[in-house]
# Entry
Amino acid sequence: MAFWDYLPIAILFVISAGLAAIAVGLGHLFGPRKPTPKKLEPYESGMNPFGPGTRRMPVRFYLVAVLFILFDIEVVFFLPWAVVLKDLGITGLVEMIVFVSILVVGFIYAWKKGALEWE
Amino acid sequence: MTTGSVWEWIIKSVVIVFGLLTGFAYLTLLERKVLAKIQVRIGPNRAGPMGLFQPLADAIKLIFKEEIIPSRADKIIFVLAPIITVIPALIILGVLPFGGIITLFGRQISLSLADLNVGVLYITAIASISIYGIVLAGWSSNNKYAMLGGIRSSAQMISYELALGLSFIGPILLSGSMSLHDIVAAQKPLWFVVYQPVGALIFWIATLAEVNRAPFDMPEAEQELTAGYHTEYSGMKFALFFMAEYIKMIAVSAIAATLFFGGYRFVLEDQYPILGPVWLLGKVIVLLFGMIWVRATLPRIRYDRLMAFGWKFLFPLALANVFFTAIGIVLEKLWLIPLLTIAVFLGAVVMVGISETRRWRSHVF
# Structure
C-alpha cells in the first residue's frame, strides 16, 4: 500500500524533530542566562540600533519570487513527462516543446523588460 | 507490515540521523584541516591526536554558551527557526539507497530506509522546505542584517532551484523512473555522468548555491552582513544552523553521487553488498573535498552577478540540456547527448565571454 511507503519517512521525521528539540533544550538547560538591556539590543556593529528591524524590501525580490513560481511549475510538469518519455516517443517530445516555447516567450519578455537586472 | 519492520525502520532512522551527525562533526574538522593545508597553516591540532576531538570540544562549548533572544524578536519563531532548518537537512536522505540487500541475523535487510516511487520529487520538495527556516530566522530576529540575509538567501535559493530541478530531469529521462533505486540500477553499465556531463556540472553549481557555500555564500557574507540570517543566534541555536548547512553538504553530495556517479555501486559490490555504503561514502568524501577546495579557491561573487548567472546562464543552459537529452532518448542515440550538450555548453560560454568583453570595453557595469 502506498501509505505504508511513507511511514519510514514519518519515523525519520519524528526522530529528527526530537533530536533538534533536544539540542535546543540542552542549550536552554546548561547555558547561563544573565540578560541586560544592552545585551538584548539587536546587533548593529556597535552603533545604537534605530528604527524597526524588519522594514520594507525592494520589489525586485517579489518579482523573482513570481518568476520562480512560474518556472518551478514548469519543472514539476517535466518530472512525470520525463518518466514516460520513452513510451510517448516523438509525440511527447513535440508536445513538451510547444509547452516550453510558450513559457520561454514569457521568459524572454521578462528578460527584455529588465526583470532580471539588479541595478 | 509487521512490528519487526517498524523496529527495523526505527533503527535505520536512528542510524541515518546519528550517522549524519557524526559526518557533520568530522566534516567541520575536515574542512578546517583542508583549508589550513591549502593556506599553509596547521589547523586544529590541540584537542586529541591530530585534533580528532575538536568537534567534541566545540559541541561541549556550544552547549554551555549563553543564548540571547533579542528584545522585540518574535520569540516563538526565533526558537523554532533553527529546528525548522535542521529537520529537512536530516530527512532528505530518507529515500537514498545506501547499498543493496544484506543478510544480518538471518534477516534480509535492504540498506535504505524507504523506496518511494517519487524519490526525486521528494528530494526537490524537502530541499525547498529548508528555505523557510532561513527566511523565518532572518525575519524573526528584528535585526536589519539578519533580515537582509534572509531575503537574499531566499531569492538566491529559489533562483538556483530552477536549474537544480532541471538537472534532475536528465537522470530521470535516462532511467525512466523517479525512484533512486531504479536510477542506481540503471547506471550499472555506465555512470550517468557520461551521458550528462553538463547536467552534473549544473547540479554541482546549483547545489553550491542551495547550501549557501562559497562562492555563493552571499546570505552569510561576514564582511557585509556580519553573519546574515543567523547574526542574532548564539549557543546551540547557532549550532543547529551550522549543522543544517554541513548536513546539507553531505546530503547533496550523496544525491549527486547517486544521480550521476553510480550511487553505491562500484567494483566487487555485487559479490559483497556490504561494500555499498563504503563506496558511497568514498564518492561523497571526494565530492565534499571538491566543495571545500572551491571555497578555498574562489572569491565570493557580487549579488547582481549571482542572480544574472542563475537566471540568464544556468537556467537556459539547464533547459537546453533537458531538450537535447530528450532528443537523444527519442532518437535512441544516447551517444548524441554528451556531444550535443557539451557543444551547447561551450557555445554558451563563448557567448557570455563575448558579451562580458563588450560590457568591459564600454565600461557599463
Observations:
- Residues 59-88 of chain A form the longest helix (30 residues).
- The CA atoms of residues 108 and 114 of chain A lie 10 Å apart.
